[in-house]
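Researcher: Let's do a round of design. I'm pasting the structure tokens now; please hold your answer until I've finished.
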């Protein structure tokens, strides 16, 4: 079986599109490649319109082909000869069921009805699709299979990280550090430089890390900063580390600097980092963080949260939307939340048609405080939460788990992925590795 893969961005375009609409689909597609290679042959295509010519040639050679389009339904290519399955994320209570701007593709219910099946990343999204299209619509929840890339970071090194200083170095980036900028003593009248260049920061103690796009209102990051500052205002041992994801460094840093400044003075530390982190540097950041934090109104799956938890980092986050699939009181400090009206994110009319989740700010502040107490006073409980996070994410998004579930879904739809001996060998090898055996 041959899988043709297409995303809204490519290797050539992604650098200039970070933080813009639908950019994360590129990274999700990359995560699925190893799994798909165990189920068949993988080919990337830049232009889905060219898929039919390729499919015709492959089918003449007796090959079975399916196109996986990693994109929201309104951007999925339609009317192709090649069977096309969308792979999309969704974090709202209802699917778009109306058209606007003269484009019928904005009606997701109509688009999905025209396609043979679909893949999404959460049971929350599956329920939304079934409510719109009926319980028999063929769709499966498959999160990005990323656990294997972070499993080796889960160990007892967290305690050493808490006790020692570590560095984060960027060959080109911007770092805003509340201590270096004097926010521990006053509200400065000047604005720091947002000019990118070589930079570094030394960190230690309790480190709460969040990865988000500050230009995306869905991330609700203002609450994330303010609750931290009120929880740890007089605690210089606590640091909030924010990795900013956006293509425009000056714009992203200005947004965050404004929020950092208006909360001053505070003795706790708030650090914002903008710039590309190589894989090794990002893993270093993950390994030395104490907790991962998310305060979003909704998540389609949240790759950073899954990455940190795969590495055994307990979370502070709400258990709504996709996060409900893997957050539990055993692996996270759960933030209370409740529904509120909003609009579909790509609807310029901004009419109220769906629901998102509003966080309880005091619950977030209290979660910060309790999580800090646990590290200092109950390290054995922290260790148990770390193990629970690692194990929950193994079941949720390991390559072995996703390969099995995707293979079963495709076969139920009449496709024939992989030769079973090859797939069985991969799954057996994965089970041996997880149990600590060699060979």
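Researcher: That's everything. Go ahead.
Model: Designed sequence:
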């Amino acid at each position: 079986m041959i899988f043709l893969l297409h995303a809204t961005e490519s290797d050539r375009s992604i650098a200039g599109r970070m933080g813009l609409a639908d950019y994360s689909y590129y990274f999700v597609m990359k995560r699925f490649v190893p799994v798909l290679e165990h189920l068949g042959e993988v080919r990337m295509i830049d232009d889905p319109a060219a898929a039919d010519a390729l499919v015709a040639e492959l089918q003449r050679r007796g090959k079975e082909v399916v196109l996986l389009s990693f994109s929201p339904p309104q951007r999925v290519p339609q009317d192709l000869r090649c069977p096309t399955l969308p792979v999309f994320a969704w974090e709202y209570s209802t699917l778009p069921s109306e058209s606007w701007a003269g484009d019928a593709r904005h009606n997701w219910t109509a688009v999905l009805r025209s396609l043979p099946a679909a893949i999404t990343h959460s049971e929350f999204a599956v329920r939304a699709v079934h409510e719109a299209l009926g319980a028999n619509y063929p769709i499966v929840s498959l999160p990005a299979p990323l656990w294997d890339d972070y499993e080796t970071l889960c160990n007892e090194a967290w305690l050493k990280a808490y006790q020692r200083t570590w560095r984060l170095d960027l060959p080109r980036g911007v770092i805003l550090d509340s201590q270096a900028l004097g926010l521990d003593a006053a509200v400065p009248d000047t604005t720091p430089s947002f000019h990118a260049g070589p930079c570094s920061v030394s960190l230690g103690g309790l480190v709460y890390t969040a990865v988000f796009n500050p230009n995306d209102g869905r991330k609700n990051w203002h609450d994330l900063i303010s609750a931290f500052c009120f929880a740890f205002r007089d605690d210089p041992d606590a640091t909030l580390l924010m990795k900013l994801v956006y293509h425009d460094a000056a714009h992203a840093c200005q947004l965050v600097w404004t929020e950092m400044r208006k909360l001053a003075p505070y003795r706790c530390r708030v650090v914002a980092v903008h710039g590309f982190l190589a894989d090794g540097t990002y893993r270093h950041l993950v390994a030395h963080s104490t907790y991962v934090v998310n305060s979003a109104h909704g998540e389609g799956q949240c790759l950073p949260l899954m990455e940190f938890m795969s590495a055994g980092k307990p979370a502070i986050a709400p258990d709504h939307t996709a996060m409900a699939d893997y957050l539990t009181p055993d692996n996270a400090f759960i933030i209370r939340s409740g529904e509120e009206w909003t609009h579909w994110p790509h609807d310029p009319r901004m009419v109220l048609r769906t629901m998102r989740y509003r966080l309880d700010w005091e619950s977030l502040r209290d979660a910060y405080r309790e999580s800090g107490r646990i590290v200092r006073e109950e390290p054995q409980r922290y260790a148990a939460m770390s193990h629970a996070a690692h194990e929950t994410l193994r079941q949720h998004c390991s390559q072995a788990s996703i390969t099995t579930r995707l293979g079963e879904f495709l076969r139920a739809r009449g496709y024939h992925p992989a030769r079973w001996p090859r797939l069985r060998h991969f799954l057996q090898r994965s089970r041996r590795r997880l149990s600590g055996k060699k060979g």
